[in-house]
Specification:
single chain; alpha/beta; Rossmann fold; 7-stranded parallel beta sheet; two-stranded antiparallel ribbon; globular
C-alpha cells in the first residue's frame, strides 16, 4: 500500500484502476485534485498509474471477494476518513460465446466480477457514505453500450451490463434519504485494450456475420465524462450518460 501525506480534496475509490478507462479516470482525477484510491487485482499497473501523485493510494483488490472489498474501504477510511465518490469500473468481457455455448464456469466468472463485484463495492460505499460526516456521496457505475444494444456472442457480458442498470437505479433510490446519488455511464468504443479483445481495430463481428472496422475515440475523453459526473454538486445527479465513438454502429445495430 502506498502511504500518503495529508492532502485536501474529495476522496474517490476507483476499481479496475490499473488499465484502460479506470487508469485514465484515476490519473485525471488526481490531476484535478482528488485523493484517489486505486484498486485492482495487479499491484504493478496500479503503482504505475499512481506514480508521481501524492494523493494516490494503491490497494490491490479482487472486487469479487467480500473480504478484499471490505479491506479496500478500510484503507480509504484509515487514510482519509471518508469516501466521496466510487467509480465502479472493474469488469471483464469474458468468452465470446452464445447462450448455448458458454460454460457455467465462464458465466459465473463474468457475473462474479461485473455484477457481484459492483454490488459488493456499492454496498461498502453506501455503508461508508451513510456513516461519515458530512453524510452522502456519489456512486458512478460503468455500464456499457451493451446495456442498450449487445454485440453478437456476448451473452454473459451483456447480461451483466443490463443488470448494472437495475443496480444503478436501486442504489440511487435507496441512497436518496442519505444524500447518496448513483449514475451510470455507458461507453462505446473508447480506445482501450478490451477493444483489441473484441477485435474492433481489425474488424468487429456484426449481427449479419460480417466484420467491420469500427471507429473509436480517445480514452481521455471518456475519462472527462466520468469526471463531469463526479464533480456534479450534491444538488444534482447525472443518472444516465451515453458516450460513444462518432459513427460507430450503435443506433443501427442489428
Amino acid at each position: 500500500m502506498t502511504t500518503t501525506a495529508s492532502f485536501p480534496g474529495p476522496v474517490a475509490v476507483i476499481t479496475g484502476a490499473g488499465t484502460g478507462i479506470g487508469r485514465a479516470v484515476a490519473r485525471l482525477m488526481l490531476e484535478e485534485g482528488f485523493r484517489v484510491v486505486l484498486a485492482g487485482r495487479r499491484e504493478e499497473p496500479l503503482r504505475e498509474a499512481a506514480a508521481g501523485h501524492p494523493g494516490a493510494l494503491v490497494v490491490p483488490c479482487d472486487v469479487s471477494q467480500e473480504p478484499d472489498v471490505d479491506r479496500l474501504f478500510r484503507h480509504a477510511i484509515d487514510a482519509w476518513g471518508r469516501v466521496d465518490v466510487l467509480f465502479n469500473n472493474a469488469g471483464i468481457f469474458g468468452p465470446t460465446a452464445a447462450v448455448d455455448e458458454i460454460s457455467p464456469k465462464d458465466w459465473n466468472a463474468v457475473l462474479a466480477v461485473n455484477l457481484t463485484g459492483s454490488m459488493l463495492c456499492a454496498a461498502a460505499a453506501m455503508r461508508t457514505m451513510k456513516s461519515q460526516s458530512p453524510q452522502g456521496g456519489r456512486i458512478i457505475n460503468n455500464g456499457s453500450i451493451s446495456a442498450h444494444s449487445p454485440r453478437p456472442r456476448s451473452v454473459a457480458y451483456t447480461v451483466t451490463k443490463h443488470a448494472m442498470t437495475g443496480l444503478t437505479k436501486s442504489i440511487d433510490l435507496d441512497g436518496r434519504a442519505y444524500g447518496i446519488s448513483c449514475g451510470q455511464i455507458d461507453i462505446g468504443n473508447t480506445a482501450t485494450d478490451i477493444m483489441s479483445t473484441l477485435g474492433v481495430g481489425d474488424g468487429a463481428v456484426q449481427p449479419d456475420g460480417s466484420r467491420k472496422v469500427e471507429p473509436t475515440f480517445p480514452v481521455k475523453d471518456a475519462a472527462q465524462a466520468v469526471l463531469l459526473m463526479a464533480q456534479m454538486p450534491a444538488s444534482a445527479n447525472v443518472g444516465s450518460l451515453v458516450i460513444s465513438a462518432a459513427g460507430m454502429p450503435f443506433q443501427g445495430r442489428g
